[in-house]
Amino acid sequence: MPGSIRERVMSRGEARSRGAMRVGAALIALLALFAVAGPWFSPYSYRALDWRHLAVPPGLIASHWLGTDALGRDLYVRTLYGLRLSLVIGGLASAVSVLIGVSWGMLAGWAGGRIDAWMMRVVDVLYALPYLFIVLILTAMLGRGNLTVLLLAIGAVGWLTLARVVRAQTLSLKRREFIEAARATGLSPRQILWRHVLPNLAGTLVAYSTLLVPQMIVYESFLSFLGLGVEPPRASLGSLINAGARQMLTAPWLLLVPAVVLVVLLLAFNLLGDGLRDVFDPSGR
Amino acid sequence: MSSIPADGEPPVAPAALLSIEALRVCFGGPARAAAVADVSLAVHPGECLGVVGESGAGKSLTFLAALGLAPAGAAVSGRVRLGQTDLLAAPEAVLDRMRGGRVGFVFQDPMTSLTPHLTIGAQIAEPIVRHRALARRAARMRVLELLEQVRMPEPARRMRQYPHELSGGMRQRAMLAIALAGEPQLLIADEPTTALDVTLQAQILALLAHFKRERGMGLVLITHDFAAVAGVADRVAVMRAGQLIETGTVREVLKRPREPYTRELLSASAEPFAPNPAAPPGTSGAAPAVLAVDDLEVRFAQSVGGVRRRWFTALEAVSVTVAGGEALGVVGESGCGKSTLMRAALQLIRPHRGRVQWLGQDLLGLPARRIRRLRRDLQLVLQDPLASLDPQLSVEQLVGEPLQIHEPSLSSEARRVRVHAMLERVGLEPALYQRRAHELSGGQCQRVGIARAMILAPRLLVCDEPLSALDVRAQRQIRLLLAQLRRGQGTSLLFVSHDLSLVRHLCERALVLYLGRMVELAPTAQLFTRPLHPYTRELLEAIALADPDLQPARLAKVALGEPAAPLERPGGCAFRVRCAHATALCAERSPPWVSAGEGRWVACHHFRLWADGMLSP
What we know:
The complex is a heterodimer of chains A (285) and B (617).
Chain A (H helix, E strand, L loop, with lengths): L1 H36 L37 H37 L1 H16 L2 H12 L4 H28 L2 H9 L3 H37 L11 H10 L6 H28 L5
Chain B lengths: L17 E10 L6 E10 L4 E5 L6 H8 L7 E9 L2 E2 L5 H7 L4 E4 L13 H13 L3 H14 L5 H4 L9 H14 L4 E5 L7 H18 L2 E6 L2 H5 L4 E6 L2 E7 H6 L4 H9 L20 E16 L3 E16 L3 E5 L6 H8 L7 E6 L2 E2 L5 H7 L3 E4 L13 H12 L5 H14 L16 H13 L5 E5 L7 H18 L2 E6 L2 H7 L2 E6 L2 E7 H6 L4 H9 L8 H7 L26 H5 L5 E4 L2 E3 L4 H4 L7
Parallel strand pairs in B: 3-8, 3-9, 6-7, 7-8, 13-18, 13-19, 16-17, 17-18
Antiparallel strand pairs in B: 1-2, 1-4, 4-5, 9-10, 11-12, 11-14, 14-15, 19-20, 20-22, 21-22
Helix pairs in contact in B: 3-4, 3-6, 4-6, 13-14, 13-15, 14-15, 15-16
């Protein structure tokens, strides 16, 4: 009885974060829709050079709504194209991270003892590695602009935190009575993990993987900004920001447009992720 | 005994310590039903008011609201006076000074109501420093004094320890010391004994009665069990669904209840010594054993100071059998190894030594896969009904799971039919089948747990304290259900409990464990009428009776102190430190496990000498 009352008191704070969560979800949906459908409304392709309109500022000139860069490429289309790439890479890298992180963490947590200790030391070592060096070495070995390398480099760090979270949760779930009840019923370890541990992790997973997406997007943008990611004529938000930064004083819109889009995108994912975490995992704040 | 008249009429309104008039507590606007509706109660100095009702009856809420502790969002109306102070009108600062000062609280769960990062001593000193403005040294002395008064063992050491280092009983003693630190005139104890085993329950109740007498303070004892109030309370109030059903002196309410609801609750506070027609005639020895445990020893590694490990022997030299169709009770206080025995028998933990045989087959050498297949005949019901159900699954899924595992060929339609039939047998309505565990009451959860265990029609059902988390009414219902299911299917039962009275109702034989060793094994009827071991006798004496004529005298005999902690197992007979009949022999040699005839076994050097003179009440 007192429990239900406490819940009602909590929900006031929760209502606020749920509002923010909805805003985040709506923004993401809107941005994704734009990324897919937006370019159709423009007559230009992301690689077409318009020699007659070089570096025009945003306006209505020749349907270059957000202006063009020094080579006359349409910034509206290129930004949306970059957004598309960021979303795809963010989503893919997160999915890979979740897959690795969940299996790794769940196995370590369930096995316990020495196996757990070793598996977690591997995570610690990967955490400690100078990440940027590794990416540099990888790109040097496999060539620049290789999307697989990019995904690999991003995915290699993404799963680490998740593995830790999942391991901790599995450890605490393992001691719960319903797991013992499942063992006594005659379920095998695999059945217990699949039917009783994973579903009870789901809430945490949804929340943390939503927070993982913006992290992955930032990594990708960062690598592209350093010139280690996507190669022209293709564009990602990071490479656009990089190009824009070079002409910051003469053509500020080239920096501002992709930067604003990136910030809004990250904010939307963080709003959604934070909200989801509050809903599913009130202790994780 | 100065402030209350010895018998009959309690003093009337003007002398009341706490008076509650027409108290009403509502949640979520006036349209909602009141959680507490027009309750009027009074507590006088030196008097104990027992407030009895099922969980959710509004007993706790009444007193929380009266003392300004109603949860946010609650609308409280009525009149509450503590002495001359009008509590509902008083500013928060006044209430703050009053709580922990003139009014002390003791809550049900001492683990969650103590702050984990502060030592017991610091937490007891808090109200002393706050309410009595004592210097630190003086406060320390006072803490020690309080811990001695609540009979904390080794008070000087305990006051430097943290809550998690103490046992449940010691934590409750610490809570009591905190409550007493402010020299309260009124002590409110909310289910103070529910989380404890029988011996500790009796000790805490005896302590409360002792303080009431010594200090002449008012005591409110909130509980679901009439047996708990019978020995302590002067007056009793019965609540149901936020309303006061009946009030009167203990004798009036317990002996001549007016309301049918009170009568129903009273009958649920089982009469432990009454003859038990429900128990089938003893089948011990007749049928061949299904489960045989032989010379079992279980040890746990313990890290002391973080690094070094030492072994703690939880169970030693335990041999017992469960015959086909028999119900065996395993009894003892918390930490005696009864749950360990059950887990080792089910191969949920690995024993250090000994044998466990199931239908003549040794379980210890078997590969995990084989054991999993055998589990269909060895099912388990756990103590905490809510925690033992996966929160993500519906009732129907939970009960269907064992079938999915052990009879995978069953079509989902056929499975559903069997699940529904089982749920009907345990008395759950179809409306509940899609609910999740947290949407059910404790009793309903335990029914789901039982349905889950019984759907495979196991040959042995193992129950680990399946009733101790429930209120008396649900306890009685579940107890009857277990007996009925067992009779229907001829299932053997291994029933682990700290409460001998429950074992009495369900089991033909009972094994008593003390600090990991067997002390007595006997048919339950004989165990109750003529216990052979002094420890069994102590357990029997600790059982609370819902009888105001007998219970005060029983409570008066209970030792107020704590039993020896399991880690400090004394040599020789482990029970000798608590035993009134101990001799030099008991310290020297541990007693052998010998037959006492009539299927009785006991481990006591002197059982022949003194047992004959002993009779239970």
